Amino acid sequence: MFAALGRSMWRWRWPVLGAWLVLVLAGATLGGQVFDRLSSTDNLRSDAESQVAQARIDQLLPEGPIVVAVVRDRDPYDPPLVESVTKISAELRTLPGVAGVDDLYSAPGGQIGADNRSTLVRVELVDGQSDVERERVEDRVTELLRRIDAPQVLVGGEKLAERAFADQAIRDAAVGESIALVVLLVVLVVIVGGFLAGAIPLLAALGAVAVTLLGLLGLASVTEVGEFTVNVVTLLGIGLSVDYALLLLFRFREERDADPDAGPAELLGRMLASAGRAVLISGLAVAAAMTGLFVFAEPLLAAMALGGALVVALATLAGLTAVPALIAVGHRRIPAAGARTWATRAVGAVVGLPRRVRPARSTPVSGTPQRPHPRSTPVGGGLLVRLATFAQSRPGPVVVTVSAGLLLLSLPFLFGANLANSDARALPSDMEARQVHDVLLRDFESGRAQPVVVVVSADPATSAVRDLMNQLNRLPNVIQMQPRPDVPGNALVIDLTPEGATAGPESRELVRAVRALDAPVPLLVGGAAAELVDYRSSVAQRLPLAVLVLLLVTGVLLFVLTGSVVIGVKALVMNALTLLATLGILVVVFQWGVGSALLGVESWGAIDLTTPVLLFVFVYGLSMDYEVFLLSRIREEWLRWSGQVTAAGRASAGDRAVLAGITRTGPVVTAAAVCIVVVFLGFLLGDLTAVKEIGFGMAVAVILDVTVVRGLLLPALMSLLGEWNWWAPGPLRRLHERWSGRVDRRRWRFRCPLEPAAEPRHIRPGTLMLTDS
């Protein structure tokens, strides 16, 4: 099937490229509209207790969005200031869309800051306005507040902070991606050895992303598309498209070097017959990661899963159609694998570009002399080959040392991670919304945490409610208990101010303690700390299901690729080690602040609670790319090497197959890793801490995965397991043999591919061809 697809890409190369060009132009023209339709998606489902509690509070004490102005550096009772604030407040009250205004002079309960030279103006907007209407009112309110006669007026609020965060995320993405794409093009040209060949992966990536934006525009018309979905789409789209294109490019060059007399159509067929299958299985595996993300069912993660699944499908489609068509058009401009160009001379030693190899003499089974196959003897260097050779020489110590090292790196995350919702603290310190948050916390809230809110559904005058309040007041970690006034009906809203920070362990423990009470009346617990507890609980409860989905899908896909059930489990374990080690390093840098100044990051004592789940998807997806690339080639080499030795020598054949597979595919994996690290490092150029967490985390994960995991742990484990790497129960093994077109002929003591005798093909040494005769 894949060989036929490759040949058809030669015949239909111009129509295929024309169809992609139309889609890309439509995406570039219309896809930008999706940015106007992005929405702020909640982290939690509506049935979470904290969300139910907030909905009940909104019903009892409805309140619109709040805009806060901090009037600073002037005596609060200076007559000109009093006159100015009073005048502006009066104008605000007449503004359409404003529900009310509170200040120090015209409403009870006004506040003066701890410095005695600042005060607040609090503006409540009408609830229920559309986002466009609300933002228009916010802009007008902000404009009026800035006219207050004071040396400094800082305007902020929750919705304004969200707007600032979203706008900054888009700016960061635009700047980071623009710089990263320019650098990426340079790196690709250097790695591949020519401008046109280097441009093919980048064109495929831009095409997949542009068409995905068009798809997201369609999704936005039927469901919510979150603000971070575009970031997910961009990262995954560029990463996967570049990986797939490089794999196909390197395989095309290899097939062309192996048979210089073959035509382009035949070479494209051979390329997709091997590498195309790996691209499809890799795409399906990454789509499985998106399915695992969707299993968590939280609105924010579900929106990211939809966007991620869409870009994975389009990146895979581009890899199987657009990239072969581009290769078909420009195949004469693609340098040979061993060509001595200015680019290969500059970086050959770094990325291990394959050199021309010396053919090994061999004799086929029939004893008839035959032209040697250029790929018979794997020679060449490169980082992965050197690491794999070292790992195979001492597999036991390498497995123990690498596994222990990765687990050691994961300890900060497993035992010291503080996951919290990103708030204004994630904004750059010079942004106004961040400054408002800091001033409010320091000068008006005395650094106290936001309250844990208890909503009681009972008459406040009953003895049961009084008993409950006594219980709440005696709970540990409670600094202050304050019932809210004027709650209508038989209900009560109580604010419990906890010790420590809003998302700190004291706040979370208080939430659990309130929920664990044997309360005499019905109650709900809400607030920022409760939302964090609910999110963690939801992720923990659904994580086994997500892992099960990934394990099953990964196991099936890798079984289809390799015929082994061991490899799927091993892949999932190695990916988990990579992820945990990455998260541990992330905690050290972003939570503890070790080395954060080098990244231009101001540590806020936590990492964003969505970061581990997002990294889980990214790390799993890209790790599966490299896993599939390596295993597909190792499997090819195993079938060839194991067929040329006796049973006693099959262990040695297994090691040779692993080394040969890594030798052939190592340059692709190394080049892909260099490219994707460039892309992710581009996100460190932005100002948002949450975006930097993702960029830094993915760069670390890719480096760990390609060097430590794929270079050391994978070959060492395969050496230890030997033939057990390819174990499968008898029925499954026979099913795979029938599906893959292979039979087990005991008299030859090895498996051999069935090929139609009528189809001429270059025959590898040591391969037995079965015909009808």
Number of strands: 12
Give the structural class. alpha+beta
Strand order of the largest sheet: 2-3-1-4
CATH superfamily of one domain: Multidrug efflux transporter AcrB transmembrane domain
Beta-strand portion reads 5-15%
Determine the mean pLDDT: 81
Top-tier CATH class of one domain: Mainly Alpha
> If helices are DSSP runs of H or I spanning 4 or more residues, what is the number of helices?
22
What is CATH's topology name of one domain?
A: Multidrug efflux transporter AcrB transmembrane fold
Q: Multimeric state of these chains? A: single chain
Helix content: 55-70%
User: Architecture of one domain, according to CATH?
Assistant: Up-down Bundle
The CA-CA distance between the termini, in Å, is 25 Å
Could you list the spans in which at least 5 consecutive residues all have pLDDT below 50? Answer: 351-380, 742-773
Q: Describe the global form.
A: elongated
Q: Biggest β-sheet: count, sense, barrel?
A: 4 strands, antiparallel
Report the radius of gyration as a whole number of Å.
31 Å
Using brief descriptors, characterize the structure shown.
Alpha-Beta Plaits; about 60% helix; 4-stranded antiparallel sheet; alpha+beta; elongated; disordered C terminus; about 775 residues; about 10% strand
